[in-house]
Amino acid sequence: MSTVTKFFGSKVFDDRVMKSRLDEKIYNTLKKTIDENADLDISVANAVASAMKDWAVENGATHYTHWFQPLTGITAEKHDSFITPSPDGGVIMEFSGKELIKGEPDASSFPSGGIRATFEARGYTAWDPTSYAFIKGKTLCIPTAFCSYGGEALDKKTPLLRSMQALNIQALRILRLFGNDTVKCVKTSVGPEQEYFLITKEMYDARPDIRFTGRTLFGSKPPKGQEMDDHYFGVIKPKVAEYMEDLNNELWELGIFAKTEHNEVAPAQHELAPIYTTTNIATDHNQLTMEIMQKAAAKHGLVCLLHEKPFAGVNGSGKHNNWSISTDTGINLLSPGETPYENAQFLLFLCAVIKAVDDYQDLLRIAVATAGNDHRLGANEAPPAVVSMFLGDELNAILDAIENDTPYISAGKKKMKLGVSVLPKFTRDTTDRNRTSPFAFTGNKFEFRMLGSSNSIACANIMLNAAVAESLKIYADRLEGAEDFETALHEMIKKTIKDHKRIIFNGNGYDDGWIKEATEQRGLLNYRTTADCMPHLLDKKNVDMLTSHKVYSEIELRSREEIMLENYCKTVIIEANTMVDMAKCSYAPAIEKYTAVIAKNAALKKQLDASVPCGYETGIVKRLSVLTDRIAKSADELENEVLKLSDAENIDSEAYMIRDNVLGKMAELRAAVDEAETITSKEFWPFPSYADILFSVR
Ligand code: ADP
Ligand code: MG
Q1: What is the whole-number distance in angstroms between the Cα of residue 548 and the centre of ligand 2?
Q2: Which of 153, 280, 483, 656 is in Cβ range 3.0-4.6 Å of 158 for a Cys bridge?
Q3: What is the pLDDT of residue 429?
Q4: How many Å apart are CA 437 and CA 274, to the nearest integer?
């Protein structure tokens, strides 16, 4: 294997390749589009297509595909080969600018949420030159946006690009007000930390619940879980290390900056974090990372679980969206610098984020809402479903001083003393970590921690970018018309702090007392489930904001609400059906079989000698018989609740029925089966236990 620097990005049509293969003029025009959002010049497309094809063919590609992100949450591709018949009966490899720019997949089966009836199958894919093309297997993948015949976005990339554009427009207005005329473009960057579980293929195959739903629907607590905290940052097992090495190599070839990897809190749980990059590219890369994580696992006899809560009772998996705003001149607008108190521009951008998170708590919650993530938010390891922000001591003190017109006395950066003289002294971060906050300032970026591990990061960043664009717009509108810029600026920062400080919370987000304080005293929103939050996507204030920045049209929003709720309902229905099937056809018969053996044994003993005690047998037989009855009854009731869903008038009411009736029945059924597991012989139990699965990778 060659060194990493040699093969890094070897499968990417990146800047290095473009520079060496494109004519200088073409390269410069394309670069302007990529770096400064300049309109794409159609005339360059042919030249780019031809260079792209030559490069791809030299690197073993035979096909190309417009790679896109439909609303299913995964990526889609339809492969076409480069071959074109030549007059002599052979073929030549061809690829035109037209084929690069636009594709027309038969889109009838992708969800559109009513935008497009299935008979209007037309959908278009359009080249996104800001994300590099790459080769996967033998196919050149061209990142594209996906829209309907009428131009509505049917994907996640289009609104994401629009949200970045909205933020760019408003941020530039603010920068101009601060006298900055050199910045041409403002972009957001993201570094998503991705958590996942690894189990063996053998365990995966043996559990229908994991196979059908991605998570365990039954399973009693193992004797050992994560209570010892011995897995977190622990030594990586050889089999896992081999997997990670393979994964890294594949990601590096694709130009993905996989950087850190470690064991996470739960047994069998791990994390991968890339170096941050432009949001649009980070999103494409994260989709690819999830795909390759699963593919690479298969090569090692493993299965990578990306579900948010594969196991009850141990931590679930999230995705931390580290987000910042920076200029094309390399300034991070969320960097406080040495003297944040004097850094009015930083304070204004900080306030814009505070205002955005408070005004659009609901949109941030909606952006991470899925049936899977509902199990995580509010459980013990993940941020609660209530959105709040952590800023740390220094920024809090600064905001306090501004709000109350009192002088701010900087505590200065303290030198850390670790008590060991050989260790270097380093400057202590001005903020300590707060692991429980859903939205934490971490020095020069915000870490949005509510995302589920399988979520596309597109949704969260669309809402975040749009909401911050809205704050900046309100600021710019006011400041551009102000008589005295400095006074207006000061007043506005002060007003933001006063109006929105309720969203700032520096305590323990896992504390029950906090939820009470948040909802009862501060009036923050607490949407516990997807069914609760999703309909608010269509609240007037949200529709107004998102349409005014041209991030979504109203039709597009309606379609998203419908698709997300449909997805929620389908997910839970599949889980419920799987449970009923496992309970009726596997668990109940297995428990019956075991009960019969014990009962027969007791009878035999009694036959042999009536004075032999059979307390053990009788006890087990009684308990298991009660549980089998409960299992059968709960399974019937659950089945019934699912049947009733067909009476729902619309998708909102179906989601409410699921929240109110189905989930509770699922929990009842699970409780009965899990209890039976603790007293049934392992020999008779039809599926591997939690302990078997969680400790399967050695
Ligand atoms: P943690 O200690 O929070 O687990 P990690 O090192 O696992 O930190 O991940 C931090 C992530 O934040 C990385 O993906 C990193 O590239 C990203 N990051 C660092 N600086 C920025 C920034 N300015 N903007 C966006 N993301 C950043
Ligand atoms: Mg991390």
Answers
A1: 36
A2: 153
A3: 53
A4: 22
Residue ranges near ligand 2 (ion) with Cβ within 5 Å: 193
Sign for the CA dihedral angle at 283, 285, 291, 297 comes to negative
Ligand 1 contact, 433 CB (< 6 A)? no
Given a contact cutoff of 8 angstroms between Cβ atoms, the answer to whether 314 and 266 are in contact is yes
Pairing of strands 277-278, 258-263: unpaired
Which mutation among 276, 390, 432, 444 tests ligand 1's pocket best, with the greatest number of atoms within 8 A of CB?
A: 276
- Give the distance (Å) from ligand 1 centre to CA of residue 502: 27
Q: What are the CA-CA distances from residue 468 to residues 207, 540, 640, 663 (Å)? A: 44, 18, 46, 35
Half-sphere exposure of 116 (CA within 13 A, CB side): 23
Query: pTM score > 0.90 for this model?
Result: yes
What per-residue confidence (pLDDT) applies to 122?
Answer: 73
What is the distance in A from the centroid of ligand 2 to the CA of 55? 36
Query: Going from the N-terminus, what domains does the chain have, and what CATH number goes with each?
Result: 3-155 (3.10.20.70), 163-217+230-552 (3.30.590.10), 568-694 (1.20.120.1560)
Strands 133-136 and 83-85: unpaired
> How much is the mean pLDDT over the chain?
91
Summarised one tens digit per residue, pLDDT across range 496-519 is 999 999 999 988 888 889 999 999
Indicate the burial class of 577 (C-beta count within 10 angstroms; 0-12, 13-18, 19 or more): middle
Is the Cβ atom of 273 under 6 angstroms away from ligand 1?
Answer: yes
